[in-house]
Amino acid sequence: IIYYHSAINNTEDKHVSLLPLINSSSPPVVTNVIVATLDLNITGLFLNSDSIDSPAFDRLWSDTSQLRKHNIKISAMLLGNFHTLSGNQSFFERNYAFLHDGLKTHNFDGIDIDVEDPTAISLPDVIRLIDRLRRDFGSGFLITMSPVAEALNGGRNLSGFNYTILEAKRGNEIAWYHAQFYNTFGWVGDTRDYDRIVEFGFKPEKVVVGMTTNKANAGGFVGLEMVGKMLGELTKKYEDFKGVAGWEYFDSSPGGQTRPWEWSERMAEFLEVRS
């Protein structure tokens, strides 16, 4: 059960605490939190338009430190400007150093690679990035990716490279894929779109159902009753079904901005994972 979390994600730019994820249930039901979104450019690494080292994020790092004590893994979502990781080796090295230092300084347990520009980075450059991350951070570092759902079943693809080929070449290094089942690229009202991904060759143990947690966050919001029915069917159909990811934490239904952690509680009920 995974949340995406923007460090600044409401109209008043207030800190949204992650601590209810460890205080609302014992043990916590959330397994992973993905901090969004990183933007890498030729001057440095940025988190939501501020330097990742800005004091504005001190409370965020305090929260993530507490979550780690409860075995919740913290990843960083890299979305912006993959052009900086393309091209010749010297250009790559200069820009990759910013990414490496930011991940290390803030103790990230993994990275979520979300390529949504088909011209930004080639498959060989993605493989170079994966190989370098694995070399630098070791076997325990989580490398995940977030394609739109159709990119895993032969349909539309925002990334510009073939995920079937990537899985064949580096699937052993990719922990799982957060397939985006929203914004017209997939539907979580029933299992058909997920079934197509499995039929296309991706194993259920590698495919997380990514959904929007509030209709204000993205198109294709589906109510919890329908989601619960769909997840019940998936868990019966696929014993090794991986799980769910919600975009995003701060206003997740049913609790909204006052109780956003309730989404994970409901997901735990649907997936029957509560201790």
From TrEMBL:
Keywords: Hydrolase. The keyword Hydrolase applies. This is Glycoside hydrolase. It comes from Lindgomyces ingoldianus.
